[in-house]
Design a protein that fits this description.
By secondary structure, the chain is mainly alpha-helical. It contains 15 helices and two strands. It has three domains: 25-126, Hypothetical protein, domain 2 (Endonuclease III, domain 1); 135-215, Helix-hairpin-Helix base-excision DNA repair enzymes (C-terminal) (Endonuclease Iii, domain 2, Orthogonal Bundle), CATH 1.10.1670; 225-279. It is 58% helix and 2% strand. A two-stranded antiparallel sheet has the order 1-2. A hairpin with a 2-residue loop joins strand 1 (272-274) and strand 2 (277-279).
Length: 280
């Protein structure tokens, strides 16, 4: 059996039943992909379902006011993702007849769609081999196809990934996502339970992976700039309109951090400030 066959057999028994896997609608799949960026699956599921109920298609999203879009996004963080999705909906409706292109080259020309997202749309919506190589897939490819001492270029990872695709591209891409989350994890991979153990050239963590994780350790989220941005938008969602009332609601006296976060939200187009009144 090929690696793809082994992985698909494992996926049929252990794959996760996620709502965005029950559709081939490019719009719904893109919404899921954007929501899943830097956000855990369990947090995304209820937000995804509520979003599609409120904005079931490109037209509904394009006609919605930004304030409504941000309210339904609230709780996911990184609110500029919602703004980009809203802006993209207008382009799709007004310039593309309400449909996304079907190739990666065309998709990456659209605002807010990068190479990974374009590859995911091609794989999950159109069931064709797409270059949806996130950190999990890259890790799996390196471990499977390269020994621990080999240095690996991104082009080599991409080449091996595309060559490993079976006919059912959608199922294979989903299988890799689950395999990376459940078995071939970033730290302490479950090699003893791995269906690909005999085929794997690394059989465990590669040394550079440990070094990369150490470099990427982030500071605590509480009272970080991201925290302040989220608190400001949360207050606006609750109907607070003035800077003074917002600071009082947040309950923290770091005015400098508040103003820095508020200024960034303005520059990102998420908040409009007129005198002492704030709106979406």
């Amino acid at each position: 059996m090929t690696i793809a066959d082994l992985l698909l057999t494992w996926y049929r028994a252990h794959g996760r039943n996620l709502p965005w896997r029950q559709t081939t609608d490019p719009y719904a799949i893109l919404v899921a992909e954007v929501m899943l960026q830097q956000t855990q699956v369990d947090r995304v599921i209820p937000k995804y379902e509520a979003w599609l109920e409120a904005f079931p298609n490109w037209k509904a999203l394009s006609e919605a006011p930004r304030s409504d879009v941000l309210k339904f996004w609230s709780g996911l963080g990184y609110n500029n993702r919602a703004v980009r999705l809203h802006e993209l909906s207008k382009v799709v409706v007004e310039e593309l007849g309400g449909e996304l292109p079907k190739t990666e080259d065309e998709l990456v020309k659209l605002p807010g769609i990068g190479p990974y997202t374009a590859g995911a749309i091609v794989a999950f919506a159109y069931n064709k081999p797409g270059k949806c190589i996130d950190v999990n897939v890259e890790r799996i490819m390196k471990r499977l196809f390269f020994s621990r001492r080999q240095e690996i270029s991104k082009s080599a990872v991409e080449r091996f990934f595309l060559a490993s695709y079976p006919r059912n591209a959608r199922a294979y891409a989903n299988a890799l996502m689950d395999f990376g989350s459940l078995i071939c994890t970033a730290s302490k991979p479950m090699c003893d339970s791995c269906p690909l153990y005999d085929e794997c050239k690394s059989r465990g963590e590669r040394e550079e992976e440990k070094e990369e994780r150490a470099k990427k350790r982030q500071s605590r989220f509480l009272h970080s700039n991201r925290w302040w941005r989220g608190q400001i938008l949360k207050g606006l969602n609750q109907g607070v309109k003035s800077e003074e009332s917002l600071r009082s609601l947040i309950g923290h006296e770091n005015r400098q951090a508040f103003q820095r976060a508020l200024g960034e939200l303005e520059r990102d187009g998420l908040v409009v400030r007129r005198d002492n009144t704030l709106t979406f």
